[in-house]
Write a structure and sequence with these properties.
The chain contains 16 helices and 12 strands. By secondary structure, it is α/β, with parallel strands linked by helices. Helix 8 crosses helix 12. It is globular, with a radius of gyration of 23 Å. The structure holds 1,4-dihydronicotinamide adenine dinucleotide (NAI) and 3-(4-hydroxy-phenyl)pyruvic acid (ENO). GO terms for molecular function: prephenate dehydrogenase (NAD+) activity.
């Protein structure tokens, strides 16, 4: 496609969207604006945009598509600024915010003026922020939720999907209330739980400093998202506070149920509790493919000897299988082995596993 795309907010998500658009539509003019000039320069250097903006108003007025990729409270303010500009009458304005109810309400300043607004939320990302962590394939196979405003017709929604085709995401239209309730449950609420677990460990840390070195395995998996950008999550929490309060009340009841179960001291009931959760989670479509994961991890149970990493990377390089990340666990407590290799696609992960198991005795696992 050809036209002027204007991305406001060039962090992890804005940068990833820019990369995906330019990959699919190399003739597009993608201009980027950020309050941090260094982030703008870096976005250009990384080819996430092909032009930096020196005037929000000027570039917004030239745009055929405006994508607001800022924290959600800034997005609301930016919509007010955009409403005061002389935007092209057929411009499409969209956002990527993790909440939708407040944003859709705030978008009325635009829709009242006849501007098309389609709310958006790519359901993939990372605990990292900033354009340096942006990836063109961040949203591959992930759901990309859309909440079209009242004035958005089918043609504008199709045009937006075409612009975003390079993301390889799966688009799904939902109502803003439904959006906030579902994402509250599967994304926002887990953040509170992850942070609360870290707080609990922190409180115990005073008495048992060894705890921080031994907090591997389950704790590491469940607490990763507590390392996310706190200001972004503050804003998300403030936008979805009622849903979160409701979920926390339900959680308190659930924890009371667990306390009662433990007091009962009944092995069968404890087994059933874990087993029912396992069955339900194992059947969840998110684990089959896509949805939340934005990378494809392979765990390799390698022995701890010098040169083992170069042996594995050498095998993969010989088969021309690209890897995006490689990590060594600091302890062997993790049942999946000490080496984690992240691939760009499911196909690469499959080939990587086949390549490693065909030449070595190392066990490989996926989750
Ligand atoms: N991080 C994630 O995994 C995901 C985040 N989101 C949503 O995407 C949005 C952006 O998140 P990230 O890219 O992760 O954050 P980020 O912190 O990496 O990037 C945000 C960028 O917006 C810029 N910015 C802030 N206020 C601005 C303003 N008024 N004008 C211009 N630029 C401004 C910041 O300088 C920063 O570079 C948020 O609304 C978040 O809820 C959605 C899906 C996943
Ligand atoms: O790091 C993770 O796994 C995330 O939770 C990423 C994420 C953050 C915010 C969203 O609205 C959607 C996905």
């Amino acid at each position: 496609m050809n036209g002027n795309v204007f991305i406001i907010g060039l962090g992890l998500i804005g940068g990833s969207i820019g990369l995906a658009i330019l990959k699919e539509h190399p003739d597009a003019q993608v201009t980027g604006y950020d309050i941090k000039p260094d982030e703008m320069k870096l976005a250009k250097a990384l080819h996430a945009i092909n032009r930096t903006s020196s005037s929000l108003q000027h570039d917004a007025e030239q745009a055929d598509l405006i994508i607001i990729c800022t924290p959600v409270n800034e997005t609301e303010k930016l919509m007010n600024s955009l409403a005061a500009f002389n935007l092209k009458p057929d411009v499409i304005v969209t956002d990527v915010g993790s909440t939708k109810k407040n944003i859709m309400s705030a978008s009325h300043v635009l829709t009242q003026k006849g501007i098309t607004f389609v709310g958006g939320h790519p359901m993939a990302g990372s605990h990292k922020s900033g354009v340096s962590a942006a990836k063109a394939f961040l949203f591959e196979n992930a759901f990309y939720l859309l909440t079209p405003g009242d004035s958005a017709d089918e043609q504008s929604i199709d045009t937006l999907k075409n612009w975003l085709r390079g993301s390889k995401a799966k688009f799904l239209e939902v109502k803003p209330e439904e959006h906030d309730h579902i994402t509250g449950m599967v994304s926002h609420f887990p953040h509170i739980i992850a942070s609360s677990l870290v707080h609990q460990v922190k409180q115990n840390y005073q008495k048992q400093p060894l705890i921080s070195s031994l907090a591997a395995g389950g704790f590491r998996d469940i607490s990763r998202i507590a390392s996310s950008n706190p200001s972004m999550w503050r804003d998300i929490t403030l936008h979805n506070i009622d849903t979160l309060k409701e979920l926390l009340m339900e959680w308190q009841q659930e924890m009371n149920r667990v306390i009662n179960m433990l007091e009962e001291n009944n092995a069968e009931h404890i087994y059933a509790y874990f087993s029912e959760a396992k069955t339900f989670r194992d059947e969840m479509p998110i684990l089959q493919k896509g949805a939340i994961p934005s990378f494809y991890d392979l765990f390799v149970d390698v022995p701890d000897y010098p040169g083992v990493i170069s042996e594995i990377t050498g095998l993969l390089a010989k088969e021309e299988i690209s890897i995006v990340n490689l990590r060594i666990m600091e302890t062997r407590e993790d049942i999946y082995g000490v080496l984690t290799i992240s691939f760009q696609t499911e196909e690469d992960r499959k080939r990587g596993a086949e390549c490693i198991t065909s030449v070595t005795d190392y066990d490989v696992f996926t989750v």
